[in-house]
Amino acid sequence: MLAKLIRTFLCLTLVLCFAAPVFARAATAKIEYCTATVLPVSASDLSQCRWVERTALTLNQFLQPKKWVRIKTQDFFTESKTTQDIAIHVAPHFIATINLFREARDGIYVREATAGSLIADDKPYDMIGGYLFVTHSTPDQSTFLLQIETYLTGYVGIAVEPWPTSNIQSQLGLGLHLGALVLILLYASSSYLLSPNPLMGRFTLFLTCSFLSVLAGCGFLAHTFFINHPTFDLIVFAMISSARLALWVWLCQAFLEPYGKMHWYRMTCTLAYIISAICGLLSFGLRGEWIQPMLISGTALISVAQIVAVHRASGIDPQYRRLLTIGFSTIAIILLAMSATALLPVFPENMAIHIARITVILPILLIASLIIYQNRKTRDDLIAVRNELDAANIQRALKDKLHEERRMMMDMLTHELKNPLATISLATQSVTDQIDIPNPEVERRIFKINQAVSNMDAVIERCNLANMANEEELRVDRRTFNVQSLLEDLIDVLPTPDRVRLLPCTGFTTTLETDPYLIQIVFSNLLENALKYAYPDSMITVSIAQPNDRCLRISVSNQLDPTISPDPTQLFERFYRHPAAHRTSGTGLGLFLIKRLSMRLGGNIQSQMSDDTIAFHVELPK
């Protein structure tokens, strides 16, 4: 409900801003400007003036800070109406000085009133948004002169109406303008307090500066805080306008900061900051004629740079890129329209004021819309990430449960299988002890039974180790030992030690500080695999190298039948065996166990295959 009220209020504000110049009462007075090469200094020296209407002024004539304006009110009078009180409205508030002259007799003018933002005692004529002079006009004294000196901009809006007149439309437009800014500021600040983020924080600061700029520009601060210090009021307004440019650049940067840094864009923003700082310094010298073009140039510069940067930035969602492009292009068009109405004399008198109000409100609404879209997109992304995280947590819980069940099953199988195997071993030993007369056939069968029991015990032990290694439950008992001596001992106990050749190593020590039991499991499995899958009677080569001072590399290589060459991507997977290798006994756990144990010891294992050779390289820290 509150959002609907805010939207309705903002729409009404925009409609009134657009409609105000349309429904404003047409001025019945004739307003002309002096176009002399050198403007007269006083009202008594106007003979050199050539008086033209506003639309006939050149750009240079329109923008010059000093102006003479002639107002003729003959059209107010009829045969039945020979006297008229008139109201002369002059805007904006920041006009340095205004002198109103009344025609006393032919060619002679006397000063009737003085006002302006540099005049401390102009309160009878000063009003919010400009100045109001109420005077009396007759057919014989129907011409008035305005001597005007502007500040910040050469623009002046003049309107003449019968008095009494209601200025409610102008005041209502300004009130709605300020009310809209307050509503947006309250929304932005509350959003930032509830969910702080850099973009909303910068937007809130920019809104605050814009609100203060409007208060200063319409004269509210002068009426409230700087009653007796008009010069300070001008300085504050110029400084706020300069700070608004800097905050606008800072806000624009916030939209592109998540998508990388572009050097040229950063340099452009730095240049805009420098322009803002220079304008702030110039405000102390009241150099309004320099400040305005510099602020317009800085605003135009950052507007073009922002549109180009949006197109060049990488990683932006296409839809968001289109919205940014449309938003900042619209803002650039609005700023161009504001500059055109303020700088060109072809537009109606008060058009620039209404466009200026739209220029403040509409870009803020567009930026707010972009921020709202970005916040919604961020919220949707966070919801998606949260859902993915919940799914990952569920999968992790299921995985942990499966691991626990598998561990319990392995423990149970190990216990249930080892007892029967121990019973079989005791039984075969008892049978052997009871044989008095040697019987080769019985001894051969007992040997096969013992060998089968030994193989089954080795498989159970290997499965148990693989399960413990996978669960990272293995305890590492680090000791210092000579790995070359360990390899020699392992080779000696192999069924065919003559097929394994350990290459000599010189120039470095072969000692390791790690768990000798786990190292023994690693290389006994590698040597057994090599003997199983190598060509019959082919040699297996074992070598030790030192790639650097921190580790040793032990390599085991053998010739391999190409018909059983394993898949390198699955070589270290649990239970993987080449389909053609099933004629050789095995569980598919050996290499999986080797990799897990190597990693548990802080090392790694890699495989290297050629046409008929496979080599395994185990690197272990010293």
Structural class based on helices, strands and sheet pairing: alpha+beta
Strand tally is: 17
Mean pLDDT score, rounded? 81
* CATH class categorisation of the largest domain: Mainly Alpha
Strand percentage, roughly? 15-25%
Give the overall silhouette.
Answer: rod-shaped
- Rg, alpha carbons: 46 Å
Order of strands across the widest beta sheet? 2-1-3-9-5-6
Count of DSSP helices?
14
Number of domains: 4
Q: What's the helical proportion of residues?
A: 40-55%
Short description:
This protein is of the alpha+beta class and 622 residues long. Helix content is 53%, strand content 18%. It contains 14 helices and 17 strands.
Polypeptide structure, described:
With 622 residues, this protein is an alpha+beta fold. The chain folds into four domains: 23-167, Immunoglobulin-like (Sandwich), CATH 2.60.40; 171-378, Up-down Bundle (Rhopdopsin 7-helix transmembrane proteins), CATH 1.20.1070; 390-470, Helix Hairpins (Orthogonal Bundle), CATH 1.10.287; 479-621, Histidine kinase-like ATPase, C-terminal domain (Heat Shock Protein 90, 2-Layer Sandwich). The chain is 53% helix and 18% strand. It contains 14 helices and 17 strands. It has helices spanning 2-23, 59-63, 168-194, 198-217, 220-224, 230-256, 263-282, 288-312, 318-343, 351-434, 440-470, 483-492, 516-533, 590-600, and strands at residues 30-34, 51-53, 66-72, 84-91, 95-105, 108-115, 126-127, 130-137, 143-150, 157-162, 479-482, 500-502, 511-514, 540-548, 551-559, 604-609, 613-621. The strands form four sheets. The chain has a six-stranded antiparallel beta sheet, with no helix packed on it. Strands 12-14-15-17-16 form a five-stranded mixed beta sheet, with helices on one face. A four-stranded antiparallel beta sheet has the order 7-8-4-10, with no helix packed on it. Strand 7 and strand 8 (130-137) form a beta hairpin. Helix 4 (198-217) runs antiparallel to helix 6 (230-256) and helix 8 (288-312) packs antiparallel against helix 9 (318-343). The longest helix is centred in the middle third of the chain and has 84 residues, at 351-434. The chain is rod-shaped. The two termini are 71 Å apart.
